[in-house]
Amino acid sequence: MGLNYVLASGSPYRRLLLERLNIKFEIRDPDIDETQRLHESAEDLVNRLSKEKAWAVLKGPGDLIIGSDQLAIYNGNIEGKPLTHQKNIEQLKRFSGQSVVFLTGLYVVKSDNLSFRKKIVRTEIKFRKLYDCEIETYVASEPAYECAGGFKAEGLGISLMESLTSKDPTAIVGLPLIALSSFLRELSI
User: Fold this and answer.
1) Strands 99-110 and 77-79
2) pLDDT over threshold 90, residue 60
3) Looking at the annotation, which residues are catalytic?
4) In a 10 Å sphere around its CB, with 0-12 CB exposed, 13-18 middle and 19+ buried, how is residue 31 labelled?
5) How far apart are the C-alpha atoms of 80 and 72, rounded to whole Å?
6) Could you read off the pLDDT of 123-178 as tens digits, one per residue?
7) Which residue, 60, 52, 45, is CA-closest to 3?
8) How far is it, in rounded angstroms, from Cα 115 to Cα 40?
9) CA-CA distance, 18 to 54, in Å (whole number)?
10) Disulfide check for 67: which of 54, 85, 160, 188 has CB 3.0–4.6 Å away?
């Protein structure tokens, strides 16, 4: 009997990325508290959330669960999802001409024997100098209220960047496919 691949995410971006691997999978949306704990580092937070998402949807034998989470870090502080139009604009104004680090956590667990793999992929985005009118136009045309960093690298948001540095370029969209492919080979064979 084959494995039942499960994406522990309601994100349409992660779904589209996983479809690239040409595997049949189902989606289970985890319902977890994503609040940062006192004294929890960004790395610990992204690891914990990826793990909790995977475990939240584990139902029984035969599942291989894929959990992922992402955060943006600017000036040593975690930048949350903007959630509103005004906060999206303010966030991008702060990022103008600056470097922002994105941490994408990946946690894959096989329900049969509870073996797992985890990884954090770091991506650094250098935003170009953004003019207020560009930011307003971008947010009006492609609101990214639910996205870490307030922009969509898979869409028009790519035009806001000066450079992107990562060992896994799909990580910036929310699911590091290079790492995931490696984990799937290790756990599903």
Assistant:
1) unpaired
2) no
3) 69
4) exposed
5) 7
6) 999 999 999 999 999 999 999 999 999 999 999 999 999 999 999 999 999 999 99
7) 60
8) 25
9) 15
10) 54
> What is d(CA 9, CA 27) in angstroms, rounded to the nearest whole number?
7
| Residue 114, φ and ψ in degrees, nearest 5 | 60, 20
pTM metric for this prediction: 0.94
Q: What is the DSSP letter of 129?
A: P
- One DSSP character per residue, 15-61 reads HHHHHTTT--EEE-------PPPTT--HHHHHHHHHHHHHHHH--ST
Question: What's the one-letter identity of residue 138?
Answer: Y
Residue 107: helix, strand or coil by DSSP?
strand
Residues 175 and 68: their CA atoms lie apart, in Å, by 6
Q: Which two tokens stand for residue 73?
A: 């870090």
